[in-house]
């Protein structure tokens, strides 16, 4: 009985852990994240398909498309 109660409590606690970065969709060849707003260390490059912002860190340089 004690083990069952411990298992139920553990599952309830794990169910309330917030997700990590996986909650944001990736954009800009996997270097950016689709979010409702960008942090002060990021800038946005374009809109994601769900109309959120594609946020890139300032240190990431966008790759220019080849004109061949």
From TrEMBL:
Keywords from the named record: Antibiotic, Antimicrobial, Defensin, Disulfide bond, Secreted, Signal
- Which region is the signal sequence? 1-22
Q: Where in the cell is it found?
A: Secreted
Q: Keyword Secreted, does the record have it?
A: yes
Short name of one Pfam family for this protein? Defensin_beta_2
Taken from the UniProt entry, a GO cellular component term is: extracellular region
Q: What are its GO biological-process terms?
A: canonical NF-kappaB signal transduction; cellular response to peptidoglycan; defense response to bacterium; innate immune response; positive regulation of chemokine (C-C motif) ligand 5 production; positive regulation of monocyte chemotaxis
Supply the InterPro entries for this chain: Beta_defensin_dom
User: Source organism's superkingdom?
Assistant: Eukaryota
Q: Identify the residues that the record assigns to the Beta-defensin domain, covering every copy.
A: 26-55
Question: Which Gene3D superfamilies does its entry note?
Answer: Antimicrobial Peptide, Beta-defensin 2, Chain A
Family note: Belongs to the beta-defensin family.
Protein's job: Has antibacterial activity.
- Which PANTHER family does the entry link to? BETA-DEFENSIN 124
Name of the molecule in the record: Beta-defensin
């Amino acid at each position: 009985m004690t083990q069952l109660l411990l298992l139920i409590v553990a599952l309830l606690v794990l169910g309330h852990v917030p997700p990590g970065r996986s909650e944001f969709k990736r954009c800009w060849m996997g270097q950016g994240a689709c979010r409702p707003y960008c942090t002060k260390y990021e800038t946005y490059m374009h809109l994601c398909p769900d109309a959120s912002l594609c946020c890139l860190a300032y240190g990431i340089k966008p790759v220019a498309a080849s004109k061949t």
